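We emphasize that the prediction below concerns an isolated chain of 129 residues; any contacts that depend on oligomerization or on bound cofactors are therefore not represented. The input was used exactly as deposited, without trimming of termini.
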Amino acid sequence: MLSQRLGLLLDYVEATRGMPYTYTEVQEFLEERGHKISRARWSYMVNGAAFRLRDPSVLEGLAELFGVDVAYLLGRAELPDEMARKMDVVDALRRERVVLAATRNLGQSDPEAVDAIREYLTKRGTQER
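Result of the prediction step, given as a C-alpha cell string:
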C-alpha cells in the first residue's frame, strides 16, 4: 500500500536526518520538477485515505525525492538495500513513538503498563537483530 511505503520512507528520512520531510519540502521539490501536489492530496496519500493516486508524474517525483524506484512505491519492488540495512534505526524510532504514546495515555494511571510496553519492545527489538 502506498501510504505504508510512504510512511516507512518518511520515518527513514526522520531517522537518518533527524526530522521528517514537511509537506512544504515535498511540495517545493515536486513543484521544481513540474509536479503539483496539494496538502490534501499529500495527506490522503500518507494517511491511506480512500484517495488513489493515478498521476505517474507525482509518483516519479516522490521516488526521486526519496531515492527509490517508482516500482517500490507501487509495491512491485523491495526497499533499496542501503535503506533496508538501516531499518534498525527506523524500528528504534517507531518503538520510541509507541513508548511515548503509552506514556501520554497511561503514564499517570498505569506506569507499570508503560514499563511493560517498554520492556516488551526492547526485548522484541533485540530479538529481531
